[in-house]
Amino acid sequence: MGKYILRRVALLIPTLIGMSIIIFAMVRLMPGDIVDSLVGLDPTVTPEAKAELRRAYGLDEPVPVQYARWIGGIAQGDLGRSYRTRQPITQEIFGALPITIELAVYALLMSVVVAIPLGVLSAIRRNSWVDFSARIGGLLGLAFPNFWLATMFLLITSLAFHWVPPVFYIPPTQDLAGNLVQFFLPALALAVALMAIEMRMARTSMLEVLRQDYIRSARAKGVRDRAIYFKHALKNAFIPVITVIGIQLGVLLGGSVIIEQIFGLPGVGWYLLQGIQARDYPVVQVTALFLATVFVVMNLFVDITYGFLDPRIKYD
Amino acid sequence: MTQASASSSTSPATINQVILRPPPTLVQRVGYFVRHHPIGVVGIVIIALVVITAVFAPQIAPYEPTSQTFKRLAPPSAINWLGTDDLGRDVFSRIVYGSRISLLVGLIAVTLALSVGVTLGVLSGYIGGKFDNGTMRVVDLMFAFPGLVLAIVIAGLLGPSITNAMIAIGIIYAPTFARVARGSVLTVQNELYLEAARLTGGGHVHIVSRHVLPNILAPLVVLVTLSMSTAILTEAALSFLGLGTQPPTPSWGKMLSEGRRFMEIAWWTTVFPGIAIVIAVLGFNLLGDGLRDALDPRLRE
Q1: Closest CB to A254 among B142, B146, B267
Q2: Is B213 an interface residue toward A (CB < 8 Å)?
Q3: Interacting residues of A259 by C-beta distance below 8 A, sequence separation 6+
Q4: R_g (Cα) of chain A, nearest Å
Q5: Domain locations in chain B as residue ranges
Q6: Mind listing the domains of chain A with CATH numbers?
Q7: Which of A143, A159, A254 is the closest to B278 by Cβ?
Q8: CA–CA separation, B7 vs B13, rounded Å?
Q9: A250 at B interface, C-beta within 8 A
């Protein structure tokens, strides 16, 4: 197990380098000149000024040198400076990170708390009304776009309760209750699709496990239903659910870009979109790499969790 | 071996009956699907409705989707069934025309992903070796990105337009097609019929087009259907963020984001485009689920 974790962590490095090359190449391969798109069609900017700008940003160097400089900086903890705000990106992105993480974790917890019991209940009481409504809910939950749900939540709270979410971000250190209230609707909007997927998965894998021989043996021995479900079945039914959660983390991060925008939460996704709108390439590059890194690392955690949950899975 | 065990357990008469029974006709197959996968049929009906709406949009929509002739932000009424937006355009007509954008973007993006992904995946599985290794490492890297984030970055860098949204969606889905196609090729690779085709001197093109592709079709059909639903969602998301379809073209995602500014005084501008997205996505999800159960039980969750 220890060896496996070490190998997976070591494998992170080539993965991250590969991703950084893809992102860097994407930005360089885009049509149009970076400086041109930055200054726009402003006729007052002379060609000399543009050349000056290009030199200042290091864009006059060969692309491999630019890449080496960029990745070398990242390796040393220097993520570069934003074209737009001229601030070091490191500072801005780490300020934004807690917001995105909180949103993702909040949504994940919410979805698990609702979806797993519902999925298990749906499997145990197969073809009952609980099962039937859970399955319909699962189908609908997958079809609801999170940005529409978010909009509907805001519409309902404002029309029915005359409540609008706070305009500015409330840090949990300042006002924990206020923070949790502020994040409730955004997290819920993100959680619905997750709930649907986890619920479906929990239901199918529970049904699968309940068909296994060892469950029948336990029944034959006279083990009570409750013990069968909670002691024998649940643990093994969890493994596919965790796989699905791992895959869905990417959806969660993607969704946070939109949800942060709707609720005005200055997280990493919001920062990325700001960068895209301002054609702030250093910010776009770093933020995309950053989100991808978070995704890869979270998936690593998911893979490692398997080993703890299921002794049948051996890594070496 | 199969023959020996079959003759020992079954009488020759049953074998003849089994062999002589004609393959099910298309009608029989459809009948079977309808009886056994009613959810898939609901999906087909929904998709058919959306497609009909898109094809006959000029006949169905009561007004031009871009004409700004009505009172602004008027609530639903006999004249404007779903109300009007902030520029005095008929919401119902815009939703009807919006179905064209959603289907078109979905269709082109998925076709792009399918052609690029399947080509790479089939070649990878068929050739193997270094080519396979190289391609699959790139595919792994693409999977390491959260899909929507990648789509947002690509669409943002290329510049907001409907074409670029299609390209972005196509790029993020191609790796999935490559992986599924490669896996399917690997499973048919060792089948006897493929060996027979090789031994009888079939060329590579012949083997891939006549023997490999038809046998990996089932998982791809399922993937295409399910990808249509996510592509429609992604297009709506990109347009919502201003990175997809540009005004005045009616796109459901764009309508939703435009309506958001006035939602407290005109709820209909945000509620109805969202319902349209839900219906279209639901249709493809239901059909995809049904097809998956029918065509490829291995893909079942």
Answers
A1: B146
A2: no
A3: A103, A146, A147, A150, A186, A189, A190, A265, A269
A4: 24
A5: 38-59+92-280
A6: 89-309 (1.10.3720.10)
A7: A143
A8: 10
A9: yes
pLDDT in tens, A142-201: 899 999 999 999 999 988 888 888 878 888 888 899 899 999 999 999 999 999 999 999
How many helices (H) does chain B have, and how many strands (E)? 15, 0
Residue type present at position A220: A
Contacts of B267 in chain A (CB under 8 A): 155, 159
At A36, the amino acid letter reads D
pTM, full prediction: 0.88
SS3 label, residue B247:
coil
Q: Which of A148, A251, A284 sits opposite B148 (nearest CB)?
A: A251
Q: What count of Cα atoms within 13 Å lies in the side-chain half-sphere of residue B242?
A: 7
The residue among B92, B85, B97, B90 whose CA lies nearest residue B56 is B97
pLDDT digits (tens, 9 = 90+) for B120-164: 999 999 888 899 999 988 898 888 888 899 999 999 888 889 999
Is residue B237 helix, strand or coil? helix
Is domain B38-59+92-280 annotated with CATH 1.10.3720.10?
A: yes
Q: Where are the beta strands (DSSP E) in chain B?
A: none
Question: Cβ neighbours of residue B145 under 8 Å, at least 6 residues apart?
Answer: A19, A22, A250, A288, A292, A295, B172
Mean pLDDT of B42-54: 95
Q: Within an 8 Å CB–CB cutoff, is residue A207 touching chain B? A: no
Mutate to test the interface with B, among A147, A190, A197 (most CBs of B within 10 A): A147
Instruction: Tell me how far the alpha carbon of residue A65 is from its chain's centroid.
Output: 32
Question: Chain B within 8 Å of A264 (Cβ-Cβ)?
Answer: no
- Residues in chain A with CB shorter than 8 Å from the CB of B227 are none
Backbone angles phi, psi at A81, to 5 degrees: -115, 150
Residue A247 contacts B, CB cutoff 8 Å: no
Give how far B144 is from chain A: nearest CA, Å: 6
CB contacts of B137 in chain A (<8 Å) are 18
- The tokens for A118 are 């519902």
By Cβ distance, the residue of A204, A250, A258 closest to B146 is A250
Between CA B285 and CA B107 the distance in angstroms is 15
pLDDT greater than 70 at residue A80: yes
